[in-house]
Amino acid sequence: MGSLTTDLVGYYRSLQSVVLGLNGVPKQSQDGGVIATTGTTSETASTDRSEGTSVAQPVAVEIDTVQSETCTSDVSDELSRKLEDILNTYCSTLGGQAEETPELEEAEKCVNNEPLRNGVREIVCRELNGEIDKVVKAVTRVEDPRENGDVPDIKDQKKAPEKKKAKALGKEITLLMQTLNTLSTPEEKLAALCKKYADMLEEHRNAQKQMRLLQKKQTQIVHEKDHLRNEHSRAILARSKLESLCRELQRHNRTLKEEGVQRGREEEEKRKEITSHFQVTLNDIQVQMEHHNERNSLLRQENMELAEKLKKLIEQYELREEHIDKILKHKDLQQELVDAKLQQAQEMLKDAELKHQREKDYLLKETVETQRMCELMKQQEVHMKQQLSLYTEKFEDFQSTLSKSNEVFTTFKQEMEKMAKKIKKLEKETSMYRSRWESSNKALLDMAEEKTLRDKEFESLQVKIQRLEKLCRALQTERNDLNKRVHDLGVQLAQQAGDNKQDGKAEEEGAQSLNKVTQENPILF
Hints:
The protein is an all-alpha fold. It contains twelve helices and two strands, in the order ααααββαααααααα. The protein has two domains: 2-143 and 219-338, no CATH class; 403-520. A two-stranded antiparallel sheet has the order 1-2. Strand 1 and strand 2 form a beta hairpin. This is Taxilin alpha. Keywords: Coiled coil. Residues 29-54, 144-163, 494-525 are annotated as: Disordered.
């Protein structure tokens, strides 16, 4: 970018020299003399016309000079128009720089409003220097800061925050374990873990929001960078156009110099032929030459002043360039800070996912424990079935001993009462297990798979209850059979009462005892 600015300054100086050549400013030759331009020839021709000389050769000289002046004025107008078009197109690309537009308009007015001097438009305007200098400044604003300096390494900056994150993670784990150890029941631990999980989920969502905001900022910065690159490419195009324009100006200047030299030679030959006619006007010509020398000295002084102003503007431009470099470096540092924050948010997201996985493993362990409890319940159910089988065997023993004595019947009655108590206890245990199952179901609502397993267990328990009901029905049928047998025994005893009157009292006592038993335990009959 520094080479680009130096090239533009060189083009500006060449343009200034070309414009001065077009305006008729005399230049010193290598011998120290002054080369006469088209303006001096036109003035000499005008003096000849004022004196009233009626020579044919001076008239031809006047016609040639007028034609040459019109040609040079047309070419200078075309070149000035091209320069204005380039400046207008380049300044339109930099539409955001509102401070430069009024100065460019003043420069265009200065170029268009300059008077014609000897048929040639003078483009030596003081505001033109400031305009081209500002074009150079606008080009330097597109400079990429990474061309002048290297991007700093970020690996060293990443190590320190990673160590800090590892330490903070270890501290959080130890604090979590301490809080879990303080809790007594697994339900409280599960509630604490759920609360911790909810907090981590909120932190995760906040981190995602921050990450989206940072991504938006990053896209904005990338768009700004692309915009600056586009402006840089436009500046390069403007530079190429200025180069082509300078080449055309140089070619035109060379042609003008060659034409001026040829015309000077022709005029010198013509002057030698008509020296006798112009001896009277030599004094006037000398006065005019002195006037031109004074004018040349004034123009030289103006050129020196312009050169000093140009130096000052170049110094100001260098200071401005340093300030822009500092601003671009600051933007690069901000971009690095945004990248570091984005990486930190990603690491926090990974930590949250790890914690979520750990909590999931813990819940799976709890489900395994609940399954183990269900298996224990199944074993208890098998044990209860065994007890029921034992009770059935005892009931058969009771059926065999019922015919022997009433005392055995009373013992059977007592055993039946005990069975009723045990059944009540079993019902209480089943209600307790149901309450436990409901509590476990409430604790594991969030897990769909565990819910399905619990539903299956509930169905299995219902099947077991149905089996118990079937067993109760079977017992009722057996009870009815026993009632029938007891009734048959009563009938047989009544038949035997007629045969054995002596045993009537015993039968009456047996019947009374049976009635008492039926009244006390109507369920058995």
